[in-house]
Design a protein that fits this description.
It is built from twelve helices and eleven strands. The protein has 359 residues and is an alpha/beta fold. About 20% of the residues have low confidence. The protein binds NADP nicotinamide-adenine-dinucleotide phosphate (NAP).
């Protein structure tokens, strides 16, 4: 279905024997409120998914528990057959209860059933990437992952899973999983505010393992910061683009899976097809910036530092450095997040809205 677009911000990353665009899409938002039931506008949800194909995005993140089944079935309807280039990553380790909760379900028979459910709802014989989702809604919880991860490793041997990952995991759990079977990705909460995994990201980068931040835009507590807005204004872009650009330049192993349920938002958040022909050395970015061409600016800002072999114009790098420093300084020095009971970090000047946190 998808063809890889060389002009998506960030380029590509090898996930095992597959290559994906670092700019991906997270499908959790396609469901009804509380990640439960069908979307208010089904056609819009399908249109968002088809847009990912048009843009050449080759990494979509989902889970059978989104809906439940809703996100997977929409993906299937919009994009099946997926073709060789599109990787649909999913997760197991929890189910939904009648009140919409997310109780853990990591016993071997429960995991087998969830793998089976994902295969059915996505219409696949083999799942490309399955994360074992650990912890709970408050975040990672220490404890052995051996029994659960061994079950998934066995399903991988049986040919039902191509690649494995862990999600909402501590650094120790990542290491324990790696001692059982190879992993290609870790998916944890991380963004400009939640920086608890800085060390883990660097370790994984050294091992060529992807780090996939969930809630890249703050999730249910959208990132809001005067510093972020100021940087965005200065760059004539939006805080969302700055937040995503910052993640892309943070480390080459970071893959983005921002979520939206709206084609309009999608257009503002993601690069539009018109930008495909623009190369990182394009001199047009200033003109585009003047016109408020947000995704293009984001593309140009991000590309030069992602490929150290082909550094872009000095001016572009200088702006990116400024962006990174400004945001980092603000978050590090003034807004280091405090842990709250619901797992969200709060810093002065950042105003997350309270919501239950699913996964
Ligand atoms: N492993 C885990 O435990 C776990 C947990 C949570 C999520 N995830 C994965 O991570 C993915 C991303 O997380 P997420 O979608 O919850 O959070 P997110 O990407 O941080 O933020 C999504 C929010 O941003 C809004 N948004 C996006 N573009 C926008 C724009 N241009 N203007 C205004 N608002 C915009 C969306 O609203 P609209 O819909 O109105 O655009 C939505 O409310 C999920 O889809 C899921 O696949 C995994």
């Amino acid at each position: 279905m998808s063809t890889t677009s060389p002009s998506l911000p960030g380029g590509t990353w090898p996930l095992g024997d597959l290559t994906v665009t670092r700019f991906g899409y997270g499908a959790m938002r396609l469901t009804g409120p509380g990640v439960w039931g069908p979307p208010a506008d089904r056609d819009e949800a399908l249109a968002v998914l088809r847009e990912t194909g048009k843009l050449g995005i080759t990494h979509i993140d989902t889970a059978d528990v989104y809906g439940p089944r809703v996100a997977n079935e929409l993906i299937r309807e919009a994009l099946h057959p997926y073709g060789d280039s599109l990787l649909v990553a999913t997760k197991v380790g929890a189910v939904r209860d009648e009140r919409g909760g997310w109780p853990p379900a990591r016993e071997p028979d429960q995991l087998r059933r969830q793998v089976d459910d994902n295969l059915k709802s996505l219409g696949l014989d083999r799942l490309d990437l399955v994360y074992l989702r650990l912890g709970n809604a408050e975040g990672p919880r220490a404890g052995s992952v051996a029994r659960a991860f061994e079950t998934l490793a066995e399903l991988r041997k049986q040919g039902l899973i191509r690649h494995l990952g862990v999600s909402n995991a501590t650094a120790e759990q990542v290491a324990e999983a790696q001692s059982i079977a190879p992993i290609v990705a870790v998916q944890n909460i991380y963004n400009l505010v939640h920086r608890h995994d800085d060390e883990l990201i660097d370790r994984l980068a050294a091992e060529n393992i992807a780090y996939v931040p969930f809630f890249p835009l703050g999730g249910f507590s959208p990132l809001q910061s005067e510093a972020l807005s100021a940087v965005a204004r200065r760059l004539n872009t939006t805080p969302i683009s700055v937040a995503l650009a910052w993640l892309l330049q943070r480390s080459p192993n970071i893959l983005l899976i921002p979520g939206t349920s709206s084609v309009k938002h999608y257009g503002r958040t993601w690069p539009a097809p018109a930008f495909r022909s623009v190369t990182r050395t394009s001199p047009n970015w200033r003109r585009s910036a003047a016109k408020g061409d947000v995704p293009l600016v984001s593309t140009c800002l991000v590309e030069p530092v992602n490929d150290p072999r082909k550094p872009g114009p000095r001016r572009e790098r200088a702006i990116l450095t400024h962006l990174s420093r400004a945001v980092r300084r603000h978050v590090d020095a003034k807004q280091r997040p405090r842990r709250r009971q619901d797992g969200h970090g709060v810093g002065r000047g950042l105003h997350p809205r309270r919501h239950p946190r699913p996964w």
